[in-house]
Each structure stands twice: as structure tokens, then as C-alpha cells.
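Q: Could you fold this chain for me?
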Amino acid sequence: MFALPLRASFVCFAAVVLAAGSFGCDEGRPAESDEGSGGSSSLPGTGGLPQNWPVTELHNGTMTGSGTSSDRWAQDDVTRDGVNYHFMANGWGPNFESQTVSWNGTSFTVQSMQGKPGDNWEPASYPTVFCGAYSNTQSGECGLPAAISSINTLLTGWSWQPNGNTGDYNAAYDIWLANGPDRGSFSGYLMVWFRDPLGEQPTGSPIERHVTVENVPGVWDIWQGIAWDQFPIINWVRPEKNDTLEMEFDVMDFIRDAQSRNLEVPGTHILSVAIGFEMWQPVTNLETVDFFVDVN
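A: Sure. Below is the predicted structure, expressed as C-alpha cells.
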């Protein structure tokens, strides 16, 4: 594990039981100047990715499990192409006010969310859908948890739409690791940010800027830090103003990237792969179009 000093402005609650037995993870704090190149996406819906980059699984799933709720702790078992996932409304932030979310399989829409940052820059909410053991809940059988050494590929894809929302929210994968196959052996986090808002930034400090990850399109800033609970985290973050709205990739490529940079991957098992929006300001109709995980 890392031995970095705790940044006072960083709070991560991903391993804390909150009200109603729910969990959440804050990766935000006030933004400082970003050295990203900026600019808008060159391809609608793809965040400026190469035009020949394959998107083969997204938009083709058959969904089951649907609903609409204003309960901040709403949960539901859902499926995509017969694979089990779990949806959580997850309005966990200390300054959460209200939220209405609708879902259908692994797609969901935050119809409205009202709230503001906590005193330690916690988001108001992180609605999420995941495969595996995440928070205080576990999806049905989906291939996770699994030992990293047993995984050949861990393919995943996510398509989302801002639908006019331009404020302080991210769009991020939250990948939980452990030193065993259960949540009791939780050991750290990997995150992949498709959107870095101008007003918030990831945990810790940037260690490399504008790097590439083999087999993954685009460039990334890498941040690392340690949560208040002393669990390490590595973040791969799209530079500000370079949102990725759709991409498929192999999680194992990020694990290999960490190892190639002598960053110790904090765990022997992947517990879960989750996606969602950490929201520090109100949103309307923020949408996850499709999401899948395929473990081989």
C-alpha cells in the first residue's frame, strides 16, 4: 500500500456505513488549476476518441428490472443480457436534499437532484449500478468478486449523456479491491474518471499528466492518495473539458498500467466494478445510457 500523507481536504466514505446502511465515496475537493489541454470533444458522444475505436457491446443490451423512486436509499436487482447487476440511488451526502431517479436494467436517469457539497467536499449523491460486492450490497452472480490472477480480461463499457448539465459532477468508475473474495478484506480503490468537473478534483495529488494507457484511447492524468480510512486509491482522470461520453475498455489494462509505473495495486481481488455520477450541485436528467461488465 502507499505511504502518502493524508490530504486534509480529501474525504472518502466508500467504506463507511452511513444512514440506512448505505455507503458512498467522495473523491472531490475544491479544484486547482488543471494543466489539461482543454477544448471540446471532436466527436459527438465519444469524447474525441479515435474514429476507428471499436464500440461493439454498448447499446445492444436487453434490460430487466425497472422503477422510479425519490427514496435516497432505493435499490433494485437488475439485469443486462441476463447478467446480474445492482442499482443504488445512494443519496448519501451530508448535504443531500432530494433526488428522483428512474432505472431500467443498467441504464438510469437522475431526473432531478438537489444538494450541495458537505463541509469536507463530499458530494450530495452518487447513484450507481454495479457488478459484484459493493457498498453493503452484492449483485447476483456476474463474475465478480474474482482474484486478479484468475482474470484474463475484464471488459466493460459505459455510455452516458450530460443532457445539458455543465456543473460540478463527475462521471466515474469506482472499482473496489480486496485481499480476498469478500468485503471484509477490502483494501483500496481504483477509479477511472470519464469527466472531471471544473469545480472539483480527485483525491490526493497528480503524479503524471497527459499519459496514455496501452490499448485504451486518449490521454489521462493520474492522481494518487490515501483516504481518511488509510486505504489507497489510484485515479485515472480525463483532463478537464475533455469528457468521454462513451468508451469500452479492459480494466486489466489499467491494472497493468499501474504496475508499469511502479504503483502498487492495492489488492489481490476485484470486488466490484461500479459506475455513476458524484454530484456536488443540482442536476436534471443526467443519464447513464448503457453499462456492462464481462469477466473472462
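A (continued): The chain has a mean pLDDT of 85.
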